[in-house]
Amino acid sequence: MRVGTKSVLYGAHALYLHPIAVLVAYSRLYAIPGDPRLLLGILTHDVGYWGMDRVEGEGSENHVELGGRIMDRLCGQPWGDHVRRHSRSWCDLHGQRYSRLCVADKLAFVLTPAWLYLPMARASGELAQYMAATDGQTRDGKFTETERSLLQSGDAKLWLKGLKSYTRRWVEQHRNDCDQARDMKPDCVKKLAVRAATS
Ligand SMILES: [Fe+2]
Ligand SMILES: [Fe+2]
Asked: Is pLDDT of 187 > 50?
């Protein structure tokens, strides 16, 4: 079974746990989601990991597409795009703003306790990919000295502490610098429609 599939079944993106963490995080950051389209987005945003070999690194940002397509069909393209924009790497690659779902998704990672996160991420085989990925990023200046030493410790618990510290800071920096589905600019919707039609 591929790592992405294991992630959705019993790993860091388990369908019965991760959306709950995102829901709690979204409620803390903004408001309790009352719109069923938002709830559906929270539920479907990571289902695209299913069948993927990698959950980190080049190409892994495409996991947003399945949830995005489901939301396109059921709720319209702005909602599909809101789900796509939950991935920082997808946004950076496509020049899009992060969505509120993106910030809530990162806070969900911070809120998930280590005793739950580490065994699940280890069982699915994701942990090694995540630790290797952050090891390659420790020179790019985004981490504090303390975070860097935790991330390079080679110890999973310390690594998680370092990454949560960085992610908590990232959430605070971006919680008000992101938008909702209804804030999509018409030209942005148009551009995405063209992209979908030609891909
Ligand atoms: Fe995701
Ligand atoms: Fe997620």
From this structure: no
